């Protein structure tokens, strides 16, 4: 079964739950896990998984889920993935650890888009589900659910600590309060049970085994609203009296500001490329990146001469040399076609795909300079020239020196090899000297 | 003459490459590298075992002796006093075979016939001795350019013939560049470079620059420039002579030919000529040519890394055209001879082997079958025990660094090579003491104090030699063939691209054909390789081997892309680790637990219970461990995977699988095969195993999910540290 891959849907925030409780490894597995699945089926509603991935992917059913856990059972653990075929997208794992490791049951759960949880009723059900899990499988550390973007800005699960310290200490004190929290007994003790249960919040409930469930606000989707942030800050400083309310709230507001959607206003010649580049950034960086690229103005292409200043062809057999250019352009097709199938088409859109791919791969900086210059630059230049010829009615002017190859379009001759050379300097230069831009400028000057 | 045409298989070449790399070794009798994948690749072709290029034309013994044989009169000039004489001039022989009557018949114009006795020789020393019995300048002169190049690859020529050889080599290079284009000519050029001594190269460069052709030929060849650079020769030191009338015209003609030469060598006569010569190259060069042919462009990147790796193997600081060492001695297709070479390469470090073979003269060869059941066939076979004895003796006298230095002296000067060839062990020691100065070494030799106790005898320090030897073999960072092959097998196994059915009947119907490429694959440099890969996989499936179904064409292309990317990441990581190793201990980020870390790449290791040899991406070892303790060892595995689109479960599964593999192959206790590390006989505990993923755009966009998966992997495998860089 084909699942919808949440990670291929860039730009949308999601609700991310990380949950770890304890289960009884001695009990029959199905019976032991039944309450968890029961709660999932009862409360999931609009985001219920419809695909189970054990060794293979199958349509969701309990029987298939048990089968998946069984067939992926390893020495120490087992896991099944749970997904959806339609929006909202789901990336969920049920993972079990067995002795000799401490037996644990983990849910990793991400639902996209976050807007699914704009509705109070759906959020209530989600909380009820987590409550059911935490009541049956005691949480000894910390479990939470919150916007994935905001979690990233909070630096969860490190919360500003270096990785080693974070791994050593875990969530040993209240570093952050998210939308939904389950504090294990140790944390409760550390804060004080009374204090914890008196936290100002949407929902605070004591769970069996000494844990406490805390929900700051009725809905998860509007976590960044000021009212939700105030509630979040109040709860946080209540649990951490050593923190200053204003400071905590300011930090949260800053995070909201960083996540506030920024309207893309990219330079029109490179807009299609820049929006692809933005998609490669993480949720937390995304809006800032858009703002940054809104400001970005690529330099005006200089790789051209007025038509009357063109270098005349200086080869005996221009036809042969043109064939050679076309041969070089084929090299780019050979190089990229598996990842960028559109290179076959040699259209302006292909150029944007090529730009994007090289940027993604950080091609100019990953491969050795000499090889890039020797092999990629001629291929890119020739390909660019071919696209100009094919789509703008350009004409190659063959030159003995490859670097001097020109394409006449309207009243300008373009120097694609020079462009390619500048283009292939660094990751940044892929943007500064993009093929996308050169093409558009060439198209504009075709008739004028 | 030769009772049997020399046919020697790829085993000999494996051995030769080991010489070049120091990465040993293949367990005897075990096809240790997982060759099931990607056999399709041109790599494979040399595995066939045939080396038709050296099949010698039968020389009729009844050939009329049309002119007096020009056996050379003994020149009065001898090199050193401890010269081992060749056979008596009256009955020249080589490799245990008498030179045919009538040889050399100069007028025959038959280059094969002229070359044959040299090819039959069992050692460089024999060849040098043979040279003394014939008019060498005339002989070289009567060879065509290419045959002269081949002769040059068989060991040092005596002084009189050297100038002729240089001229022929230069002519060949210019001609090949014009006719075959830069890319193909480069492979031939490398062959010449590897088989020439530094001083010969200097002459060659001077000669070509006089013709104002350097910029147009070698100057355009990247791998050649690199190799020259390694040998301390820089092209700018050999400026082409100033422009003269007529040059521009010639330049123009060449430019046009260059453009043409990028397309396949297609016209008939040129092709016939080209392919004949291709056949006469040693297999690794043939392989490189094929790759050039197939993937001229992609050479640099995705698929092409392999073409480049082909080059890299060749450019691998090879100590002096190992060609002749194996070609000459392993002649006669004797599996015995080959086996002994393999044994020697397993048991000796490359530089030691090189020196040993040069200095050993004829003494290292026994005629196997000499007493065998009345058969006349006698094959000179390497006497490994004698060789090891010699190396041990020399080692004591030269000190630990000695072999590396001596190998370099030999490579740098033809005279030095001749000296050691002719003077044997004593000359080797003298050359070492004279620090490569041939004249001084001769002076020393003439004093001829037996059993000189050289100053070096006292400086042997077990750890010290490591550096010199290691740098000799590792300088160039090329991928030896076994490493490449094993890497490719792993890449294929791990390729995530679409695969076809595992059902043989279904596959039979889907068989691709070279002539019927699907749209998009037409003219693609890898289509042919793909077809071969498919066929091979089909055979394996038919035989019921536990292999994955073949990749679909798209998946195959993607696999190459991933593979190349992986190599680039590995290169970057190795540079990072080397830089880290150079820092003071307290400031090191990676290698802080070592006093003096030695960063070695592609180190062959074995483990009890694991079949075959694996190559650790990086193995770091304490250079000078405390006495009596095994050295601290850490291993690194590098993975370049696009993790950005994986869901949590898949990400965890991937990391767990990679960690498991890292621990299984490169963790716990290892037998480290690289001879230079001197740990072959022990199981060394590995203190730390790290698995490093390439970060950047390839890592998951959800940082928290990445951390979660890292922790999952850690729970599963405590013995492996997983990181993203």
Nutshell version of this structure?
Chain A has 448 residues and is α+β, with helices and mostly antiparallel strands. Chain A has helices at residues 29-43, 62-71, 120-136, 148-153, 163-169, 185-191, 193-197, 226-239, 245-259, 271-279, 283-295, 318-336, 348-361, 363-366, 369-392, 416-423, 427-432, 435-444, and strands spanning 15-21, 51-53, 57-59, 77-83, 89-97, 104-112, 142-147, 180-183, 203-206, 212-215, 304-306, 395-397, 406-409, 412-414.
Quick tags:
heterodimer; A: 448 residues; alpha+beta; 10-stranded antiparallel β-sheet; 4-stranded antiparallel β-sheet; 18 helices; 14 strands; B: 725 residues; 7-stranded mixed β-sheet; two-stranded antiparallel ribbon; 11 strands; 49% helix; 8% strand; globular; disordered N terminus
Percent range for β-strand residues of chain B: 5-15%
Rg of chain B, Å, rounded: 27 Å
Structural class of chain A: alpha+beta
The count of helical stretches of chain A stands at: 18
The end-to-end span of chain A amounts to 54 Å
Helix content of chain B: 40-55%
Low-confidence stretches of chain A: none
Assign an overall shape of chain A.
elongated
Number of helices, counting only DSSP H or I runs of 4 residues or more of chain B: 28
Task: Describe this structure as you would to a colleague.
The complex is a heterodimer of chains A (448) and B (725). With 448 residues, chain A is of the alpha+beta class. Chain A has 18 helices and 14 strands. Chain A has helices spanning 29-43, 62-71, 120-136, 148-153, 163-169, 185-191, 193-197, 226-239, 245-259, 271-279, 283-295, 318-336, 348-361, 363-366, 369-392, 416-423, 427-432, 435-444; strands at 15-21, 51-53, 57-59, 77-83, 89-97, 104-112, 142-147, 180-183, 203-206, 212-215, 304-306, 395-397, 406-409, 412-414. Chain A has a 10-stranded antiparallel sheet. Chain A has a 4-stranded antiparallel sheet with strand order 11-14-13-12, covered by helices on one side. In chain A, strand 9 and strand 10 (212-215) form a beta hairpin. In chain A, helix 8 packs antiparallel against helix 9 and helix 10 (271-279) runs parallel beside helix 13. The longest helix of chain A is centred in the C-terminal third of the chain and has 24 residues, at 369-392. In chain A, 47% of the residues are buried. Chain B is of the alpha+beta class. Chain B contains 28 helices and 11 strands. In chain B, a hairpin with a 2-residue loop joins strand 1 (93-94) and strand 2 (97-98). In chain B, helix 5 runs parallel beside helix 7 (159-180) and helix 7 packs antiparallel against helix 8 (182-195). Classes of the chains: A alpha+beta (448), B alpha+beta (725).
């Amino acid at each position: 079964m084909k699942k919808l891959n949440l990670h291929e849907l860039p730009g949308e925030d999601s609700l991310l739950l990380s949950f770890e409780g304890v289960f009884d490894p001695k009990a029959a597995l199905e019976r032991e896990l039944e309450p968890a699945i029961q709660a999932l089926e009862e409360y999931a509603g609009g985001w219920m998984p419809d695909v189970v991935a054990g060794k293979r992917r199958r349509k969701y059913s309990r029987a298939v889920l048990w089968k998946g856990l069984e067939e992926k059972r390893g020495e120490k653990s087992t896991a099944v993935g749970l997904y959806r075929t339609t929006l909202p997208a789901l990336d969920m794992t049920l993972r079990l650890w067995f002795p000799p490791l401490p037996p644990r049951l983990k849910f990793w759960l991400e639902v996209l888009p976050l807007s699914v949880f704009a509705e109070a009723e759906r959020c209530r059900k989600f909380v009820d589900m987590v409550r059911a899990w935490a009541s049956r499988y005691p949480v000894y550390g910390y479990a939470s659910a919150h916007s994935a973007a905001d979690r990233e800005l909070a630096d969860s699960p490190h919360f500003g600590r270096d990785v080693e310290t974070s791994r050593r200490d875990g969530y040993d004190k209240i570093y952050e309060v998210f939308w939904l929290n389950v504090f294990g007994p140790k944390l409760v003790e550390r804060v004080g049970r009374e204090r914890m249960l008196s936290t100002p919040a949407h929902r605070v409930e004591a769970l069996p085994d000494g844990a406490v469930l805390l929900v700051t606000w009725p809905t998860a989707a509007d976590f960044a609203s000021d009212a939700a942030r105030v509630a979040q800050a109040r709860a946080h400083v209540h649990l951490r009296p050593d923190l200053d309310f204003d400071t905590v709230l300011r930090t949260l507001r800053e995070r909201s500001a960083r996540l506030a959607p920024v309207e893309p206003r990219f330079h029109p010649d490179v807009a299609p490329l820049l929006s692809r580049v933005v998609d490669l950034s993480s949720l937390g960086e995304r809006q800032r990146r858009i703002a940054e690229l809104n400001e970005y103005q690529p330099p005006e292409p200089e790789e051209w001469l007025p038509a009357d200043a063109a270098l005349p062809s200086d080869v005996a057999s221009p036809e042969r040399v043109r064939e050679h250019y076309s041969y070089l352009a084929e090299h780019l097709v050979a190089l990229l076609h598996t990842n960028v199938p559109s290179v076959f088409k040699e259209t302006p859109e292909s150029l944007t795909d090529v730009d994007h791919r090289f940027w993604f791969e950080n091609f100019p900086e990953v491969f050795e300079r000499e090889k890039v210059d020797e092999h990629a630059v001629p291929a890119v230049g020739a390909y660019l020239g071919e696209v100009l010829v094919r789509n703008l009615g350009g004409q190659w002017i063959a030159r003995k020196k490859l670097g001097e190859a020109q394409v006449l379009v309207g009243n300008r001759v373009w120097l694609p090899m020079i462009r390619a050379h500048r283009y292939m300097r660094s990751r940044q230069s892929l943007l500064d000297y993009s093929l996308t831009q050169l093409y558009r400028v060439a198209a504009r000057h075709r008739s004028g | 003459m030769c009772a049997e045409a020399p046919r020697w298989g790829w085993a000999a070449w494996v051995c030769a490459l080991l010489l070049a790399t120091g990465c040993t070794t293949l367990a005897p009798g075990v096809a240790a590298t997982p060759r099931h994948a990607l056999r399709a690749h041109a790599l494979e072709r040399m595995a066939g075992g045939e080396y038709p290029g050296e099949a010698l034309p039968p020389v009729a013994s009844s050939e009329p002796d049309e002119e007096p044989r020009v056996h050379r009169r003994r020149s009065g000039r001898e090199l050193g006093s401890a010269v081992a004489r060749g056979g008596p001039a009256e009955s020249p022989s080589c490799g245990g075979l008498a030179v045919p009557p009538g040889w050399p018949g100069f007028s025959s114009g038959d280059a094969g016939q002229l070359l044959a006795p040299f090819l039959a020789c069992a050692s460089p020393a024999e060849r040098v001795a043979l040279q003394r019995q014939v008019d060498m300048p005339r002989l070289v002169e009567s060879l065509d350019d290419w045959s002269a190049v081949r002769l040059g690859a068989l060991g040092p020529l005596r002084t009189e013939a050297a100038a002729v050889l240089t001229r022929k080599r230069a002519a060949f290079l210019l001609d090949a560049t014009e006719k075959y284009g830069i890319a193909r000519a480069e492979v031939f050029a490398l062959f010449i470079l590897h088989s020439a001594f530094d001083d010969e190269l200097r002459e060659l460069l001077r000669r070509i620059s006089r013709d104002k052709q350097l910029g147009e030929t070698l100057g355009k060849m990247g791998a050649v420039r690199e190799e020259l650079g390694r040998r301390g020769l820089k092209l700018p030191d050999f400026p082409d002579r100033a422009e003269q009338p007529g040059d521009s015209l010639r330049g123009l003609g060449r430019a046009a030919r260059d453009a043409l030469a990028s397309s396949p060598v297609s016209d008939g006569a040129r092709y016939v000529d080209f392919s004949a010569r291709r056949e006469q190259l040693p297999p690794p060069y043939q392989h490189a040519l094929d790759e050039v042919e197939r993937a001229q462009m992609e050479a640099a990147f995705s698929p092409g890394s392999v073409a480049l790796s082909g080059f890299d193997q060749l450019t691998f600081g090879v100590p002096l055209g190992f060609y002749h060492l194996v070609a000459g001695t392993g002649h006669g297709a004797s599996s015995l001879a080959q086996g002994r070479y393999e044994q020697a390469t397993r048991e000796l470090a490359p530089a030691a082997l090189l020196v040993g073979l040069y200095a050993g003269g004829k003494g290292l060869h026994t005629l196997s079958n000499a007493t065998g059941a009345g058969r006349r066939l006698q094959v000179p076979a390497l006497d490994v025990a004698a060789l090891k004895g010699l190396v041990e003796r020399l080692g004591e006298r030269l000190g630990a660094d000695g072999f590396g230095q001596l190998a370099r002296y030999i490579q740098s000067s033809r005279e030095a090579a001749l000296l050691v060839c002719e003077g044997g062990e004593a000359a080797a020691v003298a050359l070492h003491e004279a620090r490569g100065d041939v004249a001084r070494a001769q002076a020393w030799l003439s004093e001829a104090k037996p059993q000189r106790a050289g100053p070096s005898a006292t400086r042997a320090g077990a750890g010290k030699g490591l550096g010199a030897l290691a740098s000799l073999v590792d300088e160039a960072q090329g991928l030896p063939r076994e490493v490449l092959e094993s890497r490719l097998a792993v890449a294929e196994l791990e390729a995530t691209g679409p695969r076809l059915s595992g059902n043989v009947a279904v596959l039979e119907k889907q068989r691709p054909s070279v002539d019927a490429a699907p749209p998009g694959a037409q003219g693609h440099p890898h289509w042919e390789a793909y077809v071969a890969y498919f066929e091979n996989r089909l055979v394996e499936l038919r035989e019921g081997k536990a292999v994955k179904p073949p990749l679909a064409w798209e998946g195959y292309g993607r696999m190459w892309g991933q593979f190349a990317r992986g190599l680039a990441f590995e290169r970057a990581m190795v540079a990072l680790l080397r830089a880290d190793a150079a820092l003071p201990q307290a400031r090191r980020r990676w290698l802080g637990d070592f006093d003096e870390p030695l960063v070695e790449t592609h180190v062959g290791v074995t483990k009890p219970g694991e079949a075959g040899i694996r190559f650790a991406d990086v193995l770091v070892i304490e250079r000078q461990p405390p006495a009596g303790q095994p050295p601290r060892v850490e291993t690194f595995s590098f993975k370049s995977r696009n993790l950005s689109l994986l869901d949590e479960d898949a990400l965890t599964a991937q990391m767990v699988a990679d960690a498991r593999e890292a621990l299984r192959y490169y963790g716990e206790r290892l037998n480290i095969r690289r001879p230079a590390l001197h740990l072959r006989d022990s199981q060394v505990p590995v203190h730390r195993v790290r698995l490093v993923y390439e970060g950047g755009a390839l890592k998951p966009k959800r940082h928290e999910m990445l951390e979660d998966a890292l922790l999952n992997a850690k729970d599963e495998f405590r013995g492996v540290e997983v990181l993203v860089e």
